[in-house]
Specification:
Blueprint: H1 3-7, H2 13-25, H3 28-32, H4 35-38, H5 42-61, H6 76-96, H7 99-106, H8 109-119, H9 129-146, H10 150-175, H11 181-202, H12 209-233, H13 239-245, H14 248-261, H15 267-285, H16 289-292
Length: 300
């Protein structure tokens, strides 16, 4: 059997792989709030986990990079910096607010991408997208107002920041659509790790072997492996369907944390999260048919 036939993804395998990737991505809260990592000091926990996670993600992703397709582009600079910011702020948010609030607020990235596309890139704004934007904004207000106290407020702010940073990453990836996706994904994690390693060396006593093992497993299972699975599954799934299937992640994330670690989520957070998810679904379904029916080929 030829290698091409071996690597072919059938139409029914594609959605399954996308769902598997979403399930793996959804374990971020499960890892970040696990007892071994929760033992670390709160003010250092987020950066330490973010750094170790990125290091181990790099180790798993490195073999998938085709050296012949590595090349320099100036757009790599803002992309990698934004990804590093997203990695740090999201993981830190997980340590300072509920997993539900963190993942719901980070998923506002799709709306920030729409807004930044209009303001920065001069893209045309379709009025039907206004409903999606308003739904997401209502969801943000509900979550932030319901958690209006010091610890949660900081965590929610970091989560919103991670969504904005990820929106910048998405805009950069649009510009870099002709580049090798494994190379871009690896580089993002590499720069993210490199920017935090000097700081990590100053607080080496914070993370012991157990913390390194758990955070390292998080980097491989929750960050790197889903990208590999997603890259394979997305070959046989339209962009619209892939976007809808990955919305499983923000739903499962808080459920894992509740089942395993007993973290309760307020009703208002669920209501706000539902508004955000509704806005994302509306945004996805209302894309022009020409874009919605394209098969994603940028992550291969």
């Amino acid at each position: 059997m030829s290698s091409a036939a071996t690597n072919r993804v059938t139409p029914w395998q594609g959605p399954g792989l996308i769902l598997l990737a979403a399930v793996l991505w959804s374990t971020s809260g499960l890892f970040a709030k696990s007892p071994p990592l929760a033992e670390m000091p709160l003010d250092q926990r987020g950066p330490v986990i973010a750094c170790i996670r990125a290091i181990f993600a790099c180790l798993l992703l490195a073999p998938f990079v085709d050296r012949k397709r590595i090349r320099w582009r100036w757009a790599l600079v803002p992309m990698t910096i934004a990804f590093a910011a997203m990695n740090l702020t999201y993981v830190s948010a997980l340590t300072r607010t509920t997993a539900a609030a963190a993942i719901f607020l980070q998923n506002t990235a799709a709306i920030w991408t729409l807004i930044l596309g209009v303001l920065v890139l001069g893209e045309r704004f379709e009025m039907r997208n206004l409903v999606a934007v308003l739904l997401v904004l209502v969801g943000i207000v509900i979550i932030v107002v319901s958690d209006w106290h010091a610890g949660q407020l900081l965590g929610n702010g970091l989560a919103l920041g991670s969504g904005l940073a990820y929106a910048v990453v998405v805009l950069c990836l649009r510009h870099l659509r002709d580049e090798s996706a494994p190379w871009l994904i690896f580089l993002n994690h590499l720069i993210s790790a490199c920017l935090l390693i000097p700081w990590l060396m100053t607080v080496r006593e914070v993370a012991g072997p157990t913390q390194w093992a758990v955070a390292g497993l998080m980097g491989m299972v929750q960050m790197a492996l889903p990208y590999v699975v997603f890259a394979r599954g997305v070959r046989a799934v339209t962009a619209q369907n892939a976007a809808l299937l990955t919305l499983v992640e923000p739903v499962l994330n808080p459920l894992w944390v509740w089942v395993f670690w007993g973290e309760e989520v307020s009703l208002k957070t669920w209501i706000g999260g539902s508004c955000i998810l509704a806005g994302l679904v509306a945004r996805t379904l209302w894309r022009s048919s020409s874009r919605a029916n394209q098969v994603v080929t940028t992550v291969t």
